[in-house]
Each structure stands twice: as C-alpha cells, then as structure tokens.
Amino acid sequence: DADVTQTPRNRITKTGKRIMLECSQTKGHDRMYWYRQDPGLGLRLIYYSFDVKDINKGEISDGYSVSRQAQAKFSLSLESAIPNQTALYFCATSDWTGETDTQYFGPGTRLTVL
Amino acid sequence: RKEVEQDPGPFNVPEGATVAFNCTYSNSASQSFFWYRQDCRKEPKLLMSVYSSGNEDGRFTAQLNRASQYISLLIRDSKLSDSATYLCVVNMRDTGTASKLTFGTGTRLQVTL
C-alpha cells in the first residue's frame, strides 16, 4: 500500500463549487504539505502543517483552506472554486531530522474547474 | 529572478550518452539541496541529496558549488528509463526549525534509442 494517498485522483467541478481534497499518510510523519503544480511554474506551496496544532500559509494560500484532522490526515478545501485553480495538487509528508527534510509525495489529484 | 532556476530542456540524448543538468539558486542562506525525479503525470520522488563534497549514486553524480550558488546532476550511460523531468530543490531554513523547500520548474530529459 502507498505511504501517502490522495483522494480523489481526478475531479472535474464547476466554478463556485466547494471542493475538498484529502490526504492520508501511514509514514508517521508530523509534517504535511499541500502543493499545486502548473506547467512552467513548478511546484508551489499552498499550506503546511508541522503538527496537528500547527497550520501555516504557504506562498499561494489565497482561495484555499486546510484542516489537520489527525497526524495522518491533512485536507485541502477550495471554498469557491475558480478556473485558475485548475492544476495538479500534491500532498507531501516529511520527517525533519534536524538536518534534512526529505519530502514524500502522494500520487496527486488532477483538478479541473470549468 | 526566480529563487531556483533550471533550463527546462528538453534534453534529447541517445542511450549511453552522458548528460548534465545545472541549477542555480538565489538565496545564499540555502542550507540543503536535492534532486527529485518526476515521471509524466506522476509525483516527484527523491533521486538524491546533494552534499558539499559531491556525491555519487551509481550512474548519478551530484555536485554543489556554494560560492557560485549552483547545483549539478550528471547522468552517465543514460538509459531509456532515465527519461523524466528532473527537479532541482533547495531548502532554505527560516526561523527556528521551520524550513521551506523551493522547487525549480524542472529539466526534461528524453533518452532515445
């Protein structure tokens, strides 16, 4: 079984709809992240959480919210989806060792907003 | 200027060739460096960390030049299976133990017969 899972894997929705993307991990990591990937722009950080009580905005958090329901679960919500939120979304986890912070990614959710 | 810059490619090379990718970063406070590999429509996966002394993993060699703020990845004896996008990733530590990974946009490699 995959260590980091995302649901759904693909979603098509309409402008204005509320969407939730879910992420679960079995790696036991405290740190979790949400990124989006767009052609030519690379991966950009939306939100990150270093533990259940710690939520931080990334570089492009406007229009998104998150919830860290448990150590293993981190969900991303689009309250009112718009077409420029069409992208590939990745969840990631990491285990900070004090020196390095290798990230492990889920398989991604392809979201299309019409 | 982008924080992490890479040549997007594509680099088209024949099987067996040696190919090198470079990446530059703008923040001199950057602390750790990585190369990730991403196959088409798949998630990025760690290929290797990059250490100041340089490091090698089989056919892959990574080097770091802090003075010039660039990182390189050398692939020897390219295989068809090496075809992918290679992401340069830089970790800039903020205050305390917070850290921020910044990803380059990737360099696409296509290895052909």
Kindly provide the radius of gyration of chain A, computed on alpha-carbon positions and rounded to a whole number of angstroms: 13 Å
Distance between the termini of chain A: 33 Å
Largest sheet of chain B: 6 strands, mixed
- What structural class results from the helix and strand content of chain A? mainly beta
What is the count of DSSP helices of chain A, taking H or I runs of 4+ residues? Answer: 0
Beta-strand proportion of chain A? over 45%
Task: List the defining traits of the structure above.
heterodimer; A: 114 residues; mainly beta; 7-stranded mixed sheet; 4-stranded antiparallel sheet; B: 113 residues; 6-stranded mixed sheet; 5-stranded antiparallel sheet; 0% helix
Characterization of this structure:
The complex is a heterodimer of chains A (114) and B (113). Chain A has 114 residues and is an all-beta fold. Chain A has no helices and 11 strands. In chain A, the strands form 2 sheets. In chain A, strands 2, 4, 5, 6, 9, 10 and 11 form a 7-stranded mixed sheet that branches. Chain A has a 4-stranded antiparallel sheet with strand order 1-3-8-7, with no helix packed on it. In chain A, a hairpin with a 2-residue loop joins strand 7 and strand 8 (73-78). Chain B has strands at 4-6, 11-14, 19-25, 32-38, 44-50, 55-57, 60-65, 70-75, 84-93, 99-103, 107-112. Chain B is globular and about 40 Å long. Chain B has 113 residues and is an all-beta fold. Classes of the chains: A mainly beta (114), B mainly beta (113). Chains A and B meet through strand 5 and strand 10 of A and strand 5 and strand 10 of B.
Secondary structure layout plus pairing:
The complex is a heterodimer of chains A (about 110) and B (about 110).
Chain A: E1 4-7, E2 10-13, E3 19-25, E4 31-38, E5 42-51, E6 54-57, E7 64-70, E8 73-78, E9 87-94, E10 103-105, E11 109-113
Parallel strand pairs in A: 2-11
Antiparallel strand pairs in A: 1-3, 3-8, 4-5, 4-9, 5-6, 7-8, 9-10, 9-11
Chain B: E1 4-6, E2 11-14, E3 19-25, E4 32-38, E5 44-50, E6 55-57, E7 60-65, E8 70-75, E9 84-93, E10 99-103, E11 107-112
Parallel strand pairs in B: 2-11
Antiparallel strand pairs in B: 1-3, 3-8, 4-5, 4-9, 6-7, 7-8, 9-10, 9-11
